[in-house]
Design goal:
single chain; mainly beta; Immunoglobulin-like; 9-stranded antiparallel sheet; about 0% helix
Length: about 210
Amino acid sequence: MSKPNIALRIVARTTTPVVGIRIFGPGQKTGLQLGSDDDAGETFLTGGQIIGENGKLAITQLVKTRRVYNAGSGNAHTLSSEQSFVLDRTPSYGSIELAVPGGAQFDEVKFADDAPAAEVTTSDSRVDVTETFKTYLMYKPDGDPANIFVAIQFAQWSWSATATNIGGVWTVAPDATYSPQASTSGTNVSDGSAFPAWDENVLGLQFR
């Protein structure tokens, strides 16, 4: 069975500043964030054609993370995946699966967005974040209940930043980075060569 001829593209926003201390999320939390809720890095599907039978598209995302929080007392707490890539929350990122009919053709469409953020509290004096993401475009043909999602394309992106709290005012260090700094296209995944695999979920990581 042929895989769909579809492309994955990561669109990096050029907000100024891209990395900052912002209020984010439904709980209105304060955090060090790449992008913002309204201007996030986004994953796009570029124009393509579904070959063969009906199916579903999804995004699977893995993350290698290290977040270090320093309290005013000098105590540090680290949340880290220890150089391993772990699942970013759900196998279908954002619990989104896009149903597509066989033979369908379409132009570029927005699929998902992500603006990673590290929540901070008033007791924190500094936070350091380094994260790399692997984003996979997945496809599963309908029909046989035993069918599974397989990877079509893959893209990698990352960010790194430090923020300090002095007298209740948070400041982001000028050496914050993110990559890519512009749109980047995914690369094709050879059959079976880069199936996303993980042993742990980022939600299960514990501070140490």
